[in-house]
């Protein structure tokens, strides 16, 4: 029971970063170059975590086939869900709305887009949180690198998306209800990642880890990198590499 509570606690910690980012994005006029920079840093952090903590771990546990197959399944599942949501107004859910072509639609412009945005945030957050619970299965201690990577990446995600929601005319109550719900879902996902996946064989655990990795990698490419490079400045590439190296250093500390 103690480990279940630990999984939920770390899932909540990582998810709470979305609320922190939302408060910054909704309450402050954050310059677009700052948003792009923090999103680039978060993308770099997650890219490293996916490479070394998720796909690498899946490979070490069960070999190349479960790692590759699981990663592809995760990417396909995320892409299918994302395509469905995109048709309902959630295509630019992590965009700040700075560029007109990447603005989130208001409810008046596209009915149901608010619900789609909320479901999109859930789609983005569940795989990240689930792997926190799964990481507890390896020796009974959570992977602090995974928690740190999810937390660091969640801040710019919440910041950029909430700024876009505000520009689309959505009120404070809607914005913070969405992110509070996703933070709660992060807690549940981490618990389920520990309780449900823990009963499987090592090969299945490896495959599930790889599925989450594939979903996260697809999310980075589809929703984080476009925002990071939408208003690119000369240091964006360096910032992305810096995020990657920070996560890499944590994983080898």
From TrEMBL:
Coiled coil: none
Membrane keyword on record: yes
UniProt signal peptide: none
Keyword Electron transport: no
Record's keyword terms, sorted: Membrane, Transmembrane, Transmembrane helix
Membrane spanning stretches: 6-27, 34-52, 64-85, 174-194, 200-220, 232-250
Name the record gives this protein: ZIP family zinc transporter
Organism annotation: Streptomyces pseudovenezuelae
Lineage: Bacteria, Bacillati, Actinomycetota, Actinomycetes, Kitasatosporales
């Amino acid at each position: 029971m103690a480990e279940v509570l630990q999984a939920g606690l770390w899932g909540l910690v990582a998810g709470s970063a979305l609320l922190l980012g939302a408060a910054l994005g909704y309450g402050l006029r954050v310059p677009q170059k700052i948003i792009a920079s923090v999103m680039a840093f978060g993308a770099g952090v997650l890219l490293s975590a996916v490479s070394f903590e998720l796909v690498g771990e899946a490979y070490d546990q069960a070999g190349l086939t479960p790692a590759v197959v699981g990663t592809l399944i995760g990417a396909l599942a995320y892409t299918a869900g994302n395509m469905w949501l995109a048709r309902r107004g959630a295509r630019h859910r992590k965009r700040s709305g700075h560029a007109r072509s990447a603005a989130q639609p208001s409810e008046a412009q596209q009915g149901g887009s608010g619900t789609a945005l909320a479901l999109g945030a859930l789609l983005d957050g569940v795989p990240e949180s689930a792997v926190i619970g799964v990481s507890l299965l390896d020796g009974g201690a959570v992977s602090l690198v995974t928690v740190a990577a999810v937390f660091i990446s969640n801040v710019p995600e919440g910041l950029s998306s909430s700024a876009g929601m505000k520009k689309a005319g959505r009120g404070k109550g809607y914005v913070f209800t969405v992110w509070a719900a996703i933070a709660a879902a992060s807690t549940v996902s981490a618990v389920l990642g520990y309780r449900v996946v823990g009963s499987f064989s090592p090969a299945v655990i490896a495959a599930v880890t790889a599925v989450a990795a594939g979903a996260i990698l697809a999310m980075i490419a589809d929703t984080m990198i476009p925002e990071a490079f939408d208003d690119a400045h000369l240091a964006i590439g360096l910032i992305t590499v810096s995020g990657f190296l920070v996560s890499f250093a944590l994983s080898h500390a």
